[in-house]
Amino acid sequence: MRLKSEILVAALVRRANSDGAFAAVVKRGADEAGAIFVKVARLNGTADLYGPAPQTSFDQDDSGVRLFERVMSDAPEFEVEERLKRERAFDSDLWIVEIEDRAGRHFLDLAAG
Fold first, then answer.
1. Residue 36: CB partners within 8 Å, gap ≥ 6?
2. CA angle 95, 58, 42 (to 5 degrees)
3. Where are the chain's structural domains?
């Protein structure tokens, strides 16, 4: 069984904040299964963007696991915001979490690749 988006986002925000970063939900999506995007702002004008990993990244044993992949790396923040704007136009049920961390920590489980 896959963890609800609402629960995963709450845990992510709590984990980032407890480890010294600042995290907040920028856009709340569908509680059950909304796609989750995570913007990591490095506080120097650049950011990384992480989104759901494609289904090809999952093994059969990964049922219920949510994996993420880096969509943009060390990009100007305005470009990341433009990408998120396009994603929102495509899927109104998505979640957006923003983490501010100079070290660029994302606190996610990433797909191998």
1. 5, 8, 9, 29, 51, 52, 66, 68, 94, 95, 97
2. 45
3. 5-100
Read off the pLDDT of residues 6-42 as tens digits, 9 standing for 90 and up. Answer: 999 999 999 999 999 999 999 999 988 889 999 999 9
* Residue pair 57/113 in contact by the 8 Å Cβ criterion: yes
Q: How many residues does the chain have?
A: 113
pTM of the complete model: 0.88
- From residue 8, give the alpha-carbon distance in Å to each of 46, 84, 92: 25, 19, 18
* Fold (topology level) of 5-100: hypothetical protein tt1805 (3.40.1530)
Q: How far is CA 24 from the centre of its chain?
A: 11
